[in-house]
Every structure is written in structure tokens, then in C-alpha cells.
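Q: Give me a protein?
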Amino acid sequence: MKQIQDSYKKPILLKVSLLQPTSVATAIVPLQPQKEKIMSERERLIAQVECINQMAGELEVAILELKAIANTLNTQRHYPLGKNICQYFAVSVPWVRQQPNESFILTMRKVDLFRAEREAALLAQQLRQQTKKRLASQQHRKNKSGAETETRHLFKKVLVNKS
């Protein structure tokens, strides 16, 4: 029978003993912020600012889409007459602005829920004005050409009667 030796009884050989002091040739360098580390932190800050602003834009689009869906439901009369399926209060999203001195401000940006309606009303008003001008111009041309035709007939009658 072969005898198995206990491996745990063997001494552990270390290249550097923890019990023996080692000499250090250089002094410890005091902690100083490194320029590269500061720049990478600034880049991370700018990336986070861009991320917040992008998410704010996406949130604004989602809010406007919610309003559009609610308006569609209201117009399709799936909801009792005279009542809206959704009520709207002032809404803002977080926004980060950069100051001229390179610092940043975390603030709120208002979401204009009724901008589309105002733009549609303005466009409708402009189109109505253009149509009125066009109709007035056409009426003026018609009246002018009618007056010229009438004048020609009048002159013909005068010339025929005189001859």
C-alpha cells in the first residue's frame, strides 16, 4: 500500500516574505488630479447632459402622442359627449442648459401641449386670407373684363347709330 503524504504540512515558499521589511527607493507621490482624468470626467458629464436632454425630447414626444390619442378618442365619441378623456395641466420636462462660463444648469422646459392647435388655427387663417385675396382678384379681373366688354358694345352701338 502506497502512503499518501500530507501536502498541507509542507511550507509555503514566497518570493517576498510579508514578515521581512522591504526597502522602497521612491517616495509616495501625493495625490493630484490628473488632467486626463478630469477631461474624461468632463466628457462623462457632457455625455450625461446629452442623455438627459435626449430623454427629455423623447418624453415630450410621448406626451404629445398621448394627447393626440386622447383627441382621437374624443372625436370618435368613444367617450361620453361633453367630457374629455384626458385633462391637461402645465407640463415640464427636465432640461440641462450650458452657461456661457461652461457651467451647467439643471432646469425645466415647458411642454407646449397646444402648439399644434395654434399652428393649425394660424395656417387656416392664412389660407382664408389668401383665398379671399384670390377671389377678390378674380372678381376684379372679371369686373374689369366685363366693363371692357360693355364699353366695346357701347362704342359699337354709338358707331352704328351715328353711321
Remarks:
- The longest strand covers residues 91-98.
